[in-house]
Specification:
Blueprint: H1 2-22, E1 24-31, E2 42-45, E3 48-51, E4 57-61, E5 71-75, E6 82-85, E7 93-96, H2 103-106, H3 115-124, H4 126-129, E8 135-159, H5 166-175, E9 179-192, E10 199-210, H6 212-232, E11 238-242, H7 244-249, H8 265-284, H9 286-299, E12 318-328, E13 331-340, E14 346-353, E15 359-366, E16 371-375, E17 378-393, E18 399-423, E19 432-459, H10 462-467, E20 477-479, H11 497-501
Parallel strand pairs: 1-7, 10-20
Antiparallel strand pairs: 1-4, 2-3, 2-5, 5-6, 8-9, 8-19, 9-10, 11-18, 12-13, 13-14, 14-15, 15-17, 16-17, 17-18, 18-19
Length: 506
Amino acid sequence: MYKITFKSSIVLFMLFSIGINAQKVSSKLIDSISKEPIPYANIIFKKGGTISNEEGKFTFLFGKNAKPSDTLMISCIGYETIKKPLTQFTDSVIFMSPKTNELREVILTNKNYTAEEIIEKVQENITKNYNFDLTKKRLFFRQSSHQNFVKSDYKLKKSSIKEFNKAFLDSVLRSVPKNNAYYTEVLCDLYGNFTKSKQKIDMIKASELYDKNNEIGLTAFEEKFERIINENVKPDSYFKIKSGIFSQKIQPEDLKGKEIDSTDAEALKKKLEDQKKREAERKSNFSKYRKTTLADMMQDLFFQEKTKLNFIRKSNKYRFEIVDLAYVGNDAAYVIKFVPKGSADYKGTLYVNMSDFAILRADYENVKLVKNFKLLGISFSIFRSKGKMIFSKDDSNLYSLQYLEKDDASRFGIRRPLKIVEKNKNVKGRRKQNELSVKLDMAMTNSEKFEVVFFDTRAISNSDFDGFKEKNTVTATYMPAYNPEFWKGYNIIEPNQAIKDYTVIE
């Protein structure tokens, strides 16, 4: 028995050593009772960590100095915290046990605060709880975008250019993908604070996952459109693009401000060239655009002065209710639900630290259309706006972002007549040359999800910030299918199954 146990321990030690040498733990978190995945759990190792994705999956890489005896901790609201040596994390599935709420019995508070009093304490302690100083943040950013044409109908009423016929217009619609997906992933260091003008980005690595065939189809259409224009439109002609609605409801003398004119063939050619140039610049300015996106997301943190998520800054617009007490990691927290009193847009849940009144986590979602615009046959609405923000203490013992998520969806529609008229003032007797008249009935939806996980936040000085110069020569690597090897050796948010399964069909 002793020999078997000894040999087994040797084998076990070798297996553990192989796991540690691989410097990676990869697993899926599952509720031990419901067997449902557990999203947004904290995976903490020393001062670093990551977060499980929406499917409960995570992968975490350790530093070279990690030892088998080092402790890895997994915590999530409502579950027993798992804390044990690295050598014991060998399963591809980790079951977490729901935690019975013992807080009401074991935690004694000096005062039984109302929900409104707690929110007042949150407001009073914002400046001393959160880190507004200059920092260097190592982060991973993922954007998932999906566009879908839900309607693409039209009626051709008139065309005096034979090439602009129904077959051509049908080909235009066919060149536009009915369903389109785009994913981008970025690993970078972000220097600065929460001020939009006080941020710099150092791009480390990036990828783009989408179908390039869609670009080829649109480029072919542009070339075909340009050829038809060149063959049929006189050099000194110009276009007027106007709506039948405008022409019926607006007096002729007022129509000029509602028209798009002075668009001759040469100008149209230049416009197409400019569009291609802007696309090239977009790709070359990849990092600048990501920095802007990150900065915009941070402007909507609940403590920002002009945030649209105003459930703290304008708390008088909301009703608050303490619904539970819970542990967030090792911190005891009030669980507070909020709903709008009247015209406010959001509802959600706040987890407020009982000791310092810091919001550890905020989940929110809209209760009505955030935007709803309808005018003269054009409509636009944002029908989904939800997300979450999670904070944890950094080296300065202040709260910094650990995870940030934004999930928006919108719908754009156009249902109106459209007329494109070619005119030429140098042609005697007849200024009007050609006309294309259609009635459009089209609509598309667009959904975008942004996820940001912050792995490390360190304080920097003003001289450090001023001394860092953005180069941002790193461009995104194109992928027609997800490549798990691309991020080998880096900590990221584990991709969901949709990303893993994405493949461009040739």
